[in-house]
Amino acid sequence: MKSTHKFLAATAALGFTLTVLLPPPAALWAHGGEDHGDEAKASTGVAMIDAVALPKESQFLFGVRTALAGYSDTYSRATLYGTVTSAAGGEGRIVVPQTGRIVSLNAKVGQPVRAGQVLAVVDQTLDATQQIGLSTERANAQAELRAAQQDYARLQSIADIAARKDVIAAELRLRQARQNAAILNGQAGNRRVNITSPISGTVDVFNLALGQQVNQGDELFRVLNPGKLRVEAQVFAQDLANITPDASFQVEGLQGQTGSAPARLVVFSNTVNPVNQARQLVLELDNTAADLFRAGQAVNVQVLGRNSGKKELVVPTSAVTDLNGKPVVFVHTEPEIFKIRYVKPGSATGQQTVLLEGEVNENDRVVTVSTYQLKSIYLNQ
Questions:
Q1: Report field, pTM of the whole predicted structure over 0.85
Q2: According to a count of CB atoms within 10 Å of the terminal CB, is the N or C end of the chain lower?
């Protein structure tokens, strides 16, 4: 009996020792890192309901970039819809001056050309009526020339008794007859016309071939200078107040089109279009826009007006994305943690967007590059 009491005492002492030395039991994790408790947690212990955990190595791999949210002066902003067109000297259309046949073709699609460079040669063709008329005019001119020569020769033979004024008149008649005959002979012998480029630029798409018959007034070529572009936009009544002398303009591609460029105001028309009651705004793009826009392209025109005197919280426009149809930004709160913040965007430009509402504060570090990757990780975690 005594030995039994000793055994129970030793067992109790061992149990107390294990209770003190061993750590408390951890949560049980199933396969795949799933927590079978009430809430899923990342390995860092942070609740992943409104956050994404991304190791430093993955951040580097995805090229994650951030920027600070901050308060900035706000300006009156408006978005107009416009169309890119060729500016003065930016487009040259070449038409056929006379009906004929192409006998020389020196231009290729996409070829850079200079102003005055010969692009094609057209041989004039005449119908039967025109040929008969030309032949008649040549015959009459030759007959007049022979008569003038004979009259002048006769007067020269009797110059000692002929009146001086008759000799002078005969000489003038002969000169005029020779000139007319030369012109008509030249028209009959040389009916070819050189087609030249009116501006320097690049030859646009065309469909011509040697020997092709062309008619007077047909467009043969179109030469474009991509460095001379302008934008035409319609300004309606609600946006008129934003078009001020100190306003600045930024031209942007539509959704899916990248790139933006500043533009200079050329004219803001004083007349109103009777069809849509809008006024026309014409802007000029500089040479840097040649690689971004093309004539005929639809664009957005961001109008930035004068300072309103009020500072508002802004973030880079690239930081604003959508999650399940709601606008959000990702805030880098810890070295490997990105919190989701739902926001209400306000006016925006290609560079920055005003945040009207949301849990984003000044100097919060928002993600500007690789938001798509963060969304994908969040939706699949």
A1: no
A2: N
